[in-house]
Design goal:
The chain is of the alpha/beta class. The chain contains 17 helices and 17 strands. The strands form four sheets. Strands 2, 3, 4, 5, 8, 9, 10, 11 and 12 form a nine-stranded mixed β-sheet that branches. It has a four-stranded antiparallel β-sheet with strand order 14-15-16-17, with helices on one face. It has a two-stranded antiparallel sheet with strand order 1-13. The radius of gyration is 28 Å and the shape is globular.
Amino acid sequence: MIEFGLIVLFLLVLYGIGLLGLSLFRLIEYLALHGMMSDQADGHPIEAFLRGLWFDNVVNCYIFIIPLAVVLLAACFGNFHKGWRKFATWWIGTLTVLVFALSASNIPYYAYFAKDINSSIFNWFSYAGTTTGMVFGERSWWLYIALFLIIAGLYVWIISTIYLWSNKKLSSVPGKRFKWQDLIVSMALIGLCVFGIRGRIGYNPIKISQAYYCNDAFLNQLGIAPAFNLLTSIMDDMRPENEELQLMPYPEAISLARKSLGISGCAGSAHVLRQVIAEENVQRPNIVFILMESMSAALLHQGQTPTLDSLANHSLYFPYFYSAGIHTNHGIIASLYSFPALMKRNLMKGTVTPHRSGIPTILKKYGYHNMFFMTHEAQYDNMQAFLLTNGYDEVYSQTDYPMSERVNAFGVSDHFLFDYGLKTINQVAKKDTPWMATLLTISNHPPYVIPDWFHPHSSEQESQIVEYTDWCVGDFIKKAKQQAWWKNTVFIIVADHGMLVGKVNSELPASYNHIPLYIFGHGIQHETCQGLGTQVDIMPTLLSLLGMGYDYDGFGINLLKKQREMVFYTADDQIVGRDAKGYYIFKPATGQHFYYGSDPKSQEALHRYATSMIQTAEYLQRKEKREP
């Protein structure tokens, strides 16, 4: 048992030395770049280091899993030959030095690009000579090259010494018979290593968003292990949904998109849709933005939604409104940042968290305090990282709520979300600053959970949950009316997307994307707008009501001044163009076309319109990824 214990000690010491080295590089990065922290940073650096230790542990476990299993299982069967430890030392040492190299490289990389090292570095490999000259020609990088060589050299010396020590201790150990106790310990250690790779107990394994804990980009990214970031980025690039769309040539698509949006003049390669919106009588009311899960327009006016049905008569109401996609991440990106859905992709994800200009970032410039409330865990769909990067000051999620209030895998119920949100809003409202609160509901998403105290009129669960969701919104509005901030607040209520209601009557039933939009509150006239609209129109429409100025690179229009002849949206593998007479569906993967409506001759126009918009969005998305 003593010999087996020495093997375990040998591995644990190697493990600890590697972890210590990674923490040392993080300390160097902090000391070198802490000047990049925002003056308004609300997080403590210690938290970044603790989260960094978490991510480093994941990387270390990836490195250790194979040698750990090989050396321990050999020891279980009485084989203590130095060849096993030599293999482990070389394997662990080689990979750890490579990880050290990435950590050292990340310091000047972040200093230049303000983001952690990612797969975009492979674009430089085609220019090996130029890249080598850049690395070694920049004198400010010599310090990090020297530090890497010193730390890596010291590390190699230490693990070599540990290897020689283990040989000395175990050189005369005879073979022994198999022991169950050793196998049990080995399985436990291997199991811990596998758990370390997963990184957490929750619904998802550890993701980049787990490093985000405050409003400062530097501190949030300081905790991410560069090796983890790079590997995640490579895996993201390999996903089929991230393959480049080729619907039409980029110049043609951009030209058509600009014409559709009424943009004149020359298009610069950096901002092909750029419009400069001037200030006009700026207002700064508070804003409550409610994103309702799966609230299709087909669910309205059926006796299940008295709150929403009433709002149709007391708000700026858009009954012919459509979601950008069929997933929540699409709804967030389009509604808040005016960027359309690109098929099945999640545009909030990415090893490098995407940057978007949108309602939260514009409001931030006007002094707003922005909050986002969700029911589930914050790293779902990379929400926390994305939102904190793009204009939000605080993200409230499952970890902020009592464990007793969680009802399913998606966290708490809507009524608790709204009550918690209201209490938090009331605290923020005491300060002399405008605010925006975004609340993302969940109840109208399986698995449905209806509180025992709620007594619906419907007999079917699918209808009961719609009643409950509508009641929660109504109860929140009722309570909000009793608050002092009510009279100076604008409310926006929209669905993230729709759902199937009734039978499947086409390749893509309209109920999946047909959703309502309501805007009401301070200074908002009550009116029903009969024109077409989509979620990308919310940003320019809302900000026009507030009179705010900004540079706009989105795909929407101000629905109060312009009318759309057509709208476009997607549903995973389908692209849709719609006008007042019908809608056209195109499947790029198979080349199939479908039309539902009264004017088949409009198919070509709808096809060119929808595909040009999607291809232009593809151009902008690719451009952001190409430019670190």
